[in-house]
Records
---
Amino acid sequence: MEGLSKALARYIVSVRYEDLPEVVIAFTKLCILDYFGSAISGAPTKPVQMMDAMVRDMGGNPQAAVVTGGSTSVMNAAFVNGAASHISELDDIHKASIIHAATVVIPAALAVGEWKGRSGKELIEAVVAGYEVCYRIGEAVSPSHYYYWHNTATCGTFGAAAAAAKLLGLNEEQMVEALGSAGTQAAGLWEFIEDGAMSKQLHPGKAAMNGVISALLAAKGFTGAKKILEGRRGFFNAMSEDYDVSKITDGLGKQHKIMENSFKVHASCRHTHHAMDLAIELKKERDIQPDEVESITVNTYQVAINITDNEEPDTVYAAKFSLQYCTALALVTGEGGLDQFTEEALWDETIRAVMKKVHVASVPEIDRAYPEKWGARLVVKLRSGEEIVKETDFPKGDPENPVSEADLVRKFMRMAGQTEGIHPKDFSEKVLELEHIDDVRQLMAPFAALEPMAE
Amino acid sequence: MEGLSKALARYIVSVRYEDLPEVVIAFTKLCILDYFGSAISGAPTKPVQMMDAMVRDMGGNPQAAVVTGGSTSVMNAAFVNGAASHISELDDIHKASIIHAATVVIPAALAVGEWKGRSGKELIEAVVAGYEVCYRIGEAVSPSHYYYWHNTATCGTFGAAAAAAKLLGLNEEQMVEALGSAGTQAAGLWEFIEDGAMSKQLHPGKAAMNGVISALLAAKGFTGAKKILEGRRGFFNAMSEDYDVSKITDGLGKQHKIMENSFKVHASCRHTHHAMDLAIELKKERDIQPDEVESITVNTYQVAINITDNEEPDTVYAAKFSLQYCTALALVTGEGGLDQFTEEALWDETIRAVMKKVHVASVPEIDRAYPEKWGARLVVKLRSGEEIVKETDFPKGDPENPVSEADLVRKFMRMAGQTEGIHPKDFSEKVLELEHIDDVRQLMAPFAALEPMAE
């Protein structure tokens, strides 16, 4: 029987921009834009600055830009840009494989793409292929793998290798070798979560870098295990209790799994998003004033209540896990991004007054539909006696309730807004016209020109 | 209860050259010399040259020399020098943990030591600590870990991190973080063996590099899991069926496990070494001529027969796994190093004539003692009617049958002899006087000055 790496390799080589449906191209550009928002907002944070300082000590040829400013080697750039995009907790997520693909696939693709002067179209091909490969591998080892292993890191390594290899123009045989080297470098244990350690950022950085190493070595003729996934002593057997080979091959080349990607639009726990969506929708429809409100009821599933029923959040972090606070914040401000979750907003009297009027409860009909549907019902009673009811089955950003391009551009503008030297509007327009860019260097030029931040 | 990382960290910090017994210092220098022999002989090989070319493309500040010639970043140097020393199949081995420690610990130590201008004494401390840490972790996860995982790579990452962290002068807390980052990067699957893929060299190179990354990041304040070994979602639970925590702590700081290291003196399968030792000993005692020999019998344990009973080897590789050939080669040449296992020697008429007279067989009394003893009995019958009998319980290089310094220097001279710009005699003398070297740069200068080999 043909090996799984061979099947994946053939798929990766076969991906062509010209064959991609327009909707896939448009969606992939949004994934890339969304990646940049997370990466730019993560660049100044401590873990990323430490990783950046470390690779600056090492040095490297100026081949690829880093979001922390300046240029370094392809390996180093993948490392830093991978870490940067996985700290603001707003990067994309694939529910079935539990992988944040952007944070590993896109930095690998950007670094190689810039180094080799590839076009925007080629970048899109590489990202589509990279997402497909890691989503499939993640689904194949779910759910057991996830108990010990950080799928974004382990499975993500294959996705990064696929994207890097695609942009290096490797052939099928070389692609198989690259996947072999990727799998034998795959690592990333969940143990760090016990201490809230910075491994969270190290993992995607290393996965992106290891994927790049795998592709660069394969381009030189370096060999790896040809059946790294299904082999007797390979990735599946070593790192999962159960695995489903069909997840790799079923429909391969006939679908575009990147379309299953979920975006996060609010900077809070996912279990607060449904109610925030509804409150923001209401705020847009009619500008209800805080003192018009008599009471607000949020009905949802039990898991959301377990995790986010908090009447008195006293830190910004806790506020992001308070369904009461998040609902009030959304209704008062009409937004829920990084700019809204501030120390000032936490103690804002108007928001706090509305928060006191919010009551949350689980109801059977919504609870039964979970986890297929992450639903909520919002009931706003006004002093006038009027009662407004709104419902949703899926938080915004899920494939079943897609965000608009405008929403994601707005999210990007908020996340990228604070970096000197980056003009968010120009930059987002460039990403959304990526297919017209001849050379990824043009896209990365603003970062290359940035002064590195002080440590 | 105190975490295992904390206990290891305290030990690593506590290692002081002044406290090391002379015999440990002398032995550690031999480990380092032996490392260089393997690294120098591996430098021109294809996989190493590919890895070298890859990091040359990337570039890096000239911080540390590579055995392939020139200088590069600490990370890159650890990568290339780790790979180079694991290809000639003559690097050291620890039986209980199944780890080749030299190939991961020493390149990490050399790279950081050179960069930071550390002394020979500090290098010795780091190597002692690095061996101790990875041997203990390897023993703790044996035997189940080894089925899927290449211990040299996975456990070796901790040893490399320990050595690098020691030379960076990290304190106990930073050392714990470094071990956390090391464990969450630990990787290396045996699947490559099915294809004889080059992952064999990638593994120690990456382990050395990942260890260095862990230490460099910890020096910047980067955090990792504090219980990466024994934690619920840590290294032990994720990567072994059974593990023995006592192997980490029992006797820690009171013994020097580097002394359990085995050296290989012959360039063939370990199961041929006992008979070769005896034949070489005989050749030294009296110069028996090939045509004096009537017959030779090798009695040994069954496993040796299973793997090395081959009357007609037809490649150099097969010759290394032929007990008949190896015994004949040793008796005719009085040696068994890399220089002896050549295409010419394979078809040498004199050696082939003696080979035909060699009979091999398992005998119960030797077989019963295996695997504690890897014994053999050599019976040489001469045409004169005289019968010479020689026996051994341990192949030379085992701790129970140590090789002499002179043997290891001779092995080094053979392995290093072919590299232009390296004067094996001067270099070995320098290593054997390592404690008098003020700065590791002096040791590495000949490599830094070497012209990089053509790809």
Note: Chain B has a mean pLDDT of 95.
---
Amino acid sequence: MITLTMAQEIISAALGHARASTMPPMTVAVLDAGGHLIAFAREDRSSLLREKIARGKAMGALNMGVGSRSLVERAEGHPHFFGAITQLAEGELVPVPGGVLVRDEAGEIIGAVGVSGAVPDADEQCAIVGIRSQGLVADAGA
Amino acid sequence: MITLTMAQEIISAALGHARASTMPPMTVAVLDAGGHLIAFAREDRSSLLREKIARGKAMGALNMGVGSRSLVERAEGHPHFFGAITQLAEGELVPVPGGVLVRDEAGEIIGAVGVSGAVPDADEQCAIVGIRSQGLVADAGA
Amino acid sequence: MITLTMAQEIISAALGHARASTMPPMTVAVLDAGGHLIAFAREDRSSLLREKIARGKAMGALNMGVGSRSLVERAEGHPHFFGAITQLAEGELVPVPGGVLVRDEAGEIIGAVGVSGAVPDADEQCAIVGIRSQGLVADAGA
Amino acid sequence: MITLTMAQEIISAALGHARASTMPPMTVAVLDAGGHLIAFAREDRSSLLREKIARGKAMGALNMGVGSRSLVERAEGHPHFFGAITQLAEGELVPVPGGVLVRDEAGEIIGAVGVSGAVPDADEQCAIVGIRSQGLVADAGA
């Protein structure tokens, strides 16, 4: 499992990466395997919907069992199906990079990290840096 | 009507088919004619939204009175109408194969089976195998 | 974790207990630690709200970290507080016996079983019988 | 305003107080003046509804402009009115101590801290310790 201490260090590493770059204000959410929030941080001046976007990316990854990058192609290829299941998910199925599954050594999903604030590739990179800082496997999708 | 015993055997046959193939973890829901859940199984490591997708396929079939395969063409041909009724259905109108009506000898709808986890054609095949194992008629749509 | 096989055997033992008694038609839900449905069974002629009641008992136990029997006193002693958090839980906080936590040997919560159909004490007994059939610890609250 | 750094230190001080006592696993949420989440932490084994309860206490304080302790008397004295506005607030009006307004030197509300996990008086004490650690004024209601 992802402990609170690990989740806080994931956030610290993710935001450290954002600050070492020139990214705008960022929001980071760390969820457990059941989709429940463990830790969260919204940087000063990060806009109002950022919490829901970051969580929607992370929860979308857990909802479908793939990193949110994999959802992009699915949404484009099957828009009606994707529209229906987005409604089933109450929006928590955001098809853009930045929702990254956290796996343990055995490959089991133990949670997910969602990041929002910069361009999607940069958001995803923050999540990956955060997850790897704890010696865990980041599965961003493909 | 579909009894609990029959519903459990439908699930057993559907999952047996999945395990005899190389399908990923599957989720199966059996609904009665009123759309209420009779029996349900989510295989280990089947992702979080699978319950809603499986039920959304089965309920979509009951909602419109056709197997969910028939909903694909309708969604593509009439996207605005389909978007509106998807919202009326609160998402339970998933336009993809895998929601299969169960009919009795007289052709009456007595329930529906929804399957999610693999590609849609494989999902649908699991549902059909399950339904036929009980001597019932599977109506997948066309 | 509770595997699908374990969840199905929990249901089988719980319903076996009900059938060995003179209980009315019963409904049983088995949830994982994150509150997601693993397996479910509704006996023939169990009424329409039973799914939501069984799940609401089990989810209520997970929501508060206590067996649902413990919620009775809280609801009676603090009705306004309980009313507010029931709304936060979207109803999934049913204050009546029959939502029983499943703990492993180390005492960790690994899921919950909810039962509805008979009187609450009998519902709870079905859940306990089911959980213990798998060598797991049943925490019904007090 | 409450910066992210301040919010994280409020959480750290609140949880430090809980750990120096013998409190069960705790959950802490820090909201800005608009009710949006700045930072959040859920300790290991804190149960599933704790996020919503902690936020519901803090948001309830902001919703009515008083610490959540003040809502207890209002709920008891005007149960029908309170029931109606709880529904308007979608439950985010939890009438129990532990939702504490954060005020600046001039007395302006700049956010709120919500804590859940122990008995209400202890929850509230964690929030107060956290807020005061940043030299801010804690308004718990009366």
Note: Helices of chain B lie at 4-20, 50-64, 69-77, 79-88, 120-132.
